[in-house]
């Protein structure tokens, strides 16, 4: 199942098995989106399998158990919350795999803000319309801080502050942020800071906005960003925040 790959960002060939790790969803469209994103990454660095930390399998530990060579896990998460900081490392330990590299998470990144703006425009947003960025939420303060960074990136593109509303776990919630912004008399659009369709995104249409933009989705630019994360990890180069990767070597 392992594959060797070469990227022009690297001076050496890295013989690793890439595994894209996502949250998991019961939405068929959501699973298809993650699969499509993995195919885009595969086109760039070779066969990239998918693992999920919740809802469905295979889990990262199961995928690693089926990987006889070095592996690199690519977290398709928009912030480094509980799943990135605790679940994935726990799966690595449980797998007993002797050589696993864990990349930095996908977001925040200015590239994601560009994709969000494209999704807003496709939903009918025009300059002068208000924007609320909707994110999943987390109990991890550092993850919430990363979401705020993502909102600042989007605000830089739009030219005004973009407030954040959370769908679950954290506050303020999306409906109250939309209601607060609505008082300015402008149309209100929700920018979906979610990777794929699913339960969370489906809730956004009931939160009082004039329109809801599509999730980030399986976009070529996001695939390139994931490959950048892998290249930085394999080369040991720092990326958008924190270490480029963590290397786990089993006993």
Q: Name the structural class.
A: alpha/beta
Compute the CA-based radius of gyration.
18 Å
The coarse overall form would be elongated
Percent strand:
15-25%
Largest sheet, in brief, is: 5 strands, mixed
Going across the major beta sheet, what is the strand order?
4-3-5-6-11
Mean pLDDT: 88
Taking pLDDT < 50 over at least 5 consecutive residues as the criterion, the unreliable ranges are 1-14, 237-244, 247-251
The SSE string, one letter per element, is: EEEHEHEHEHEHEHEHEHE
How many individual helices? Answer: 8
- Tell me the span between the first and last alpha carbons: 23 Å
Count of strand segments: 11
Helicity level, as a percent range?
25-40%
Describe it for me?
The chain is of the alpha/beta class and 251 residues long. The relative contact order is 0.19. The N terminus and C terminus are likely disordered. The strands form three sheets. Strands 4-3-5-6-11 form a five-stranded mixed beta sheet, with helices on both faces. α1 packs across α8 and α4 crosses α5.
């Amino acid at each position: 199942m392992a594959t060797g790959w070469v990227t022009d960002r690297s001076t050496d060939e890295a013989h690793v098995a890439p595994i894209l790790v996502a949250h998991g969803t019961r939405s068929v469209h959501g699973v298809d989106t993650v699969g499509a994103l993995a195919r885009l990454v595969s086109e760039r660095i070779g066969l990239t399998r998918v693992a999920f930390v919740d809802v469905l399998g295979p889990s990262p530990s199961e995928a690693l158990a089926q990987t006889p060579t070095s592996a690199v896990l690519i977290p398709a998460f928009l912030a480094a919350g509980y799943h990135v900081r605790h679940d994935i490392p726990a799966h690595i330990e449980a797998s007993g795999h002797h050589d696993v590299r864990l990349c930095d998470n996908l977001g925040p990144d200015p590239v994601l803000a560009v994709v969000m703006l494209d999704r807003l425009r496709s939903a009918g947003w025009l300059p002068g319309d208000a924007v609320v960025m909707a994110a999943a939420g987390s109990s991890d303060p550092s993850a919430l801080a990363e979401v705020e960074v993502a909102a600042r990136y989007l605000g830089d593109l739009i030219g005004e502050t973009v407030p954040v509303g959370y769908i679950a776990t954290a506050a303020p919630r999306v409906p109250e942020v939309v209601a607060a912004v609505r008082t300015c008399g402008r149309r209100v659009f929700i920018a979906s800071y979610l990777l794929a369709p699913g339960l969370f995104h489906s809730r956004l249409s009931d939160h009082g906005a004039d329109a809801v933009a599509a999730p980030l989705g399986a976009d070529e630019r996001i695939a390139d960003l994931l490959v950048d994360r892998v290249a930085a990890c394999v080369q040991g180069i720092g990326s958008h925040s924190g270490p480029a990767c963590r290397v786990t070597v089993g006993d």
